[in-house]
Structure formats: structure tokens, C-alpha cells
Amino acid sequence: MEKAPGGTSVGVDDPYDHVRRCDFVTDEGKCRWAREHGHHDPEFADARSADGFRCPAAVAPEDAEADAEPEWDWSDCPHFRSRNHDRECVRCGLEERRMAHSDDRPLLEEHHLSYRGDGEELSHEITVYLCRWCHAKVHQSWARLGDDANPDSEAIAEREQRRSEEQSELGFESAADRYDGS
Asked: What are the domain boundaries of the chain?
């Protein structure tokens, strides 16, 4: 199983199994990294430009119906990055409830799946969200991201408390009642 730099488990054998698509791939299957950041790697950008900025690891929408296979795996791209944007725990499904103007600790935390590639170099960035409770279980080496898990009872209680606070904020109270001059 993959390990974090401190030696704790990250909860997966293959981080790329948890990737839907690269953050730099457009809906048309084009590589946005080559267009916007190509000056950092001109050789890569020139190769993508010569191919109409097509991403070799993605299947373009017009090729999807023909069951086309990509030329590369995500791991082959030198500039790959995948961050989960769904605001729910990938393990137990707990949804985030953020309180505006509050310093309360978030229910969800970013969890990095890929730390090292070949050797000791930092590898691709692959990030998902885990609730605080699942995050602790994964790093204690006994839980995996693919486990069939339900939200922890503490997590549900915390989420429901936040939901109740949201509901009370939505209620109407007239200024006369709220700021009684007596």
C-alpha cells in the first residue's frame, strides 16, 4: 500500500484508480497545462501544440462513442494533477457543512494519495476529500479508501449540529424582536 512520507498508510494500492480526469484537461479533451504553463516545459508544450493541444491520456468527446482508448495512462503525463472537487468523503460519503464566519474545524480534509514516484521524487498530485474520522482511520493503517463504510456517529452528530445552526440562521426574526430596547 502507498505510504505517506511519515510512513503512515494512504489507504490505496494504486492512487491512479481514484482519478476521474486530470485538472488540466478541458471538456474537449485538450491540455490546458500546455497552453497556460507551457513555458515551464517547452518541449512538452510544443508536442501538445503540434497535436492541437490534444491530451493523449484523455478521450475526446467525439471519440468516446467509438470506445477509443487513450494513448497514455494518467501516470505517463509529466504534468498530471487530479484534485477531487466533490465536497464529500470518498470513503463514507459524509457531506461537508461549512459555517460561514466560523473558525470551526471543517468536517472534510484533503487527503493526498500520491507522495512518491520512482525513487524519492515527489510524484503527481492526487488529492481526495476524507472526513476527519475516516482520515484518522486511514492513517492508522487499518482502513482503506475502497472500504464500504458509513459515517462515524460523531461525524453525523457534528454535521447535524451544523445543519441545525444553518436552519436557525434562516429563520426570520424582526429587528424589533431581536433588538428589544428594554
From this structure: 1-15+84-171, 23-79
